[in-house]
């Protein structure tokens, strides 16, 4: 025998939506019709006070949904997990709510699932819609042995650059002077400073990101020194020269700032550059980089962006000439 919420048929649809948003439905069992009521199977740990609904819980022999027993998580669309938060993008053939429920069923650490409706506004924040779960946007995310406080609703963060951040940190040399132009909550800066004794100037114009960055600097053991700067990166970088490295993680508009990055570098300095490009656009960029005075040292695809576009990581070297 297991717990079911007894609900009048005419109210079942609205109540079911409330239960699913609270991750209260035991989706491995079927909803049962009994006279004028439906019996909705609920998870054992759920109580009426948790649900904030005025119906009674009854004991009933569960009716297993055979289609969901041992069923793997397969669906159209992609999602990222950041701490206890999952962020999905709508697929071609499946409803976001269906995807969200599957994630909550299979990823026991996930407590909230949001739909990403795009990056918008001055501070490049995600436009998020809660699909299921608690709805907290703040979480603790772990990467490369470090912890980061992330607020997915107030500062952009992507877990897909975890390997990239490690590669850049490993390639940096002891004593480098570095500018992290679009630092966000500080994952590049903290990862580098954790591994190398560097001096890093981390820029961001988003006050929420800056506050989170300061938290992240404080909660991790780092060898280097990070100096957070709130403001417009395109203006702040003009104050610097003879830097060893500039990190440019702003894939939609990085190229707008490339000449300022060049001016801030010493001869022989590096740029870690990120942009969303197709194959033709990549060839065009390579030519433009050469015209400015850069040589390309490394190039790799970080991840796909759409059918014809990829996020590229390009390491540039300022010519010694």
UniProtKB/TrEMBL annotation:
One of its GO terms (molecular function) is tRNA methyltransferase activity. Gene3D superfamilies: 3.30.70.2580, Met-10+ protein-like domains (3.30.300.110), Vaccinia Virus protein VP39 (3.40.50.150). Keywords: Cytoplasm, Methyltransferase, S-adenosyl-L-methionine, Transferase, tRNA processing. Coiled coil: none annotated. GO terms for biological process: tRNA N1-guanine methylation. It holds the Pfam family Trm5_N. This is Class I SAM-dependent methyltransferase family protein.
């Amino acid at each position: 025998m297991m717990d079911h919420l007894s609900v009048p048929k005419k109210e079942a649809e609205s109540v079911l939506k409330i239960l699913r948003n609270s991750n209260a439905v035991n989706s491995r069992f079927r909803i049962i019709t009994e006279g004028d009521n439906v019996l909705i199977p609920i998870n054992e740990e759920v109580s009426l006070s948790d649900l904030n609904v005025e119906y009674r819980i009854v004991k009933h022999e569960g009716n297993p949904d055979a289609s969901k027993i041992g069923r793997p998580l397969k669906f159209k669309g992609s999602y990222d997990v950041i701490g206890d938060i999952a962020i999905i993008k709508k697929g071609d053939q499946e409803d976001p709510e269906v995807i969200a429920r599957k994630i909550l069923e299979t990823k026991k650490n996930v407590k909230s699932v949001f739909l990403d409706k795009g990056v918008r506004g001055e501070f490049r924040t995600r436009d998020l819609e809660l699909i299921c779960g608690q709805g907290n946007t703040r979480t603790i995310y772990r990467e490369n042995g470090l912890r980061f406080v992330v607020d997915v609703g107030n500062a952009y963060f992507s877990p897909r650059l975890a390997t990239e951040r490690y590669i850049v940190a490993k390639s940096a040399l002891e004593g480098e002077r570095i500018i992290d132009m679009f630092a966000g909550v500080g994952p590049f800066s903290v990862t580098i400073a954790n591994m190398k004794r560097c001096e890093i100037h981390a820029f961001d114009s988003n006050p929420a990101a800056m506050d989170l960055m300061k938290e992240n600097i404080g909660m991790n053991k780092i060898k280097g020194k990070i100096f957070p700067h709130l403001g417009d990166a395109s203006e702040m970088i003009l104050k610097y020269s003879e830097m060893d490295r500039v990190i440019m993680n702003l894939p939609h508009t990085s190229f707008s700032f490339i000449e300022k990055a060049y001016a801030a570098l010493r001869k022989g300095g590096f740029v870690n550059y990120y942009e969303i490009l197709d194959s033709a656009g990549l060839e065009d960029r390579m030519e433009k980089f050469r015209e400015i005075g850069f040589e390309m040292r490394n190039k790799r695809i970080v991840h796909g962006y759409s059918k014809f576009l990829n996020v590229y990581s390009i390491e540039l070297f300022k010519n010694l000439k």
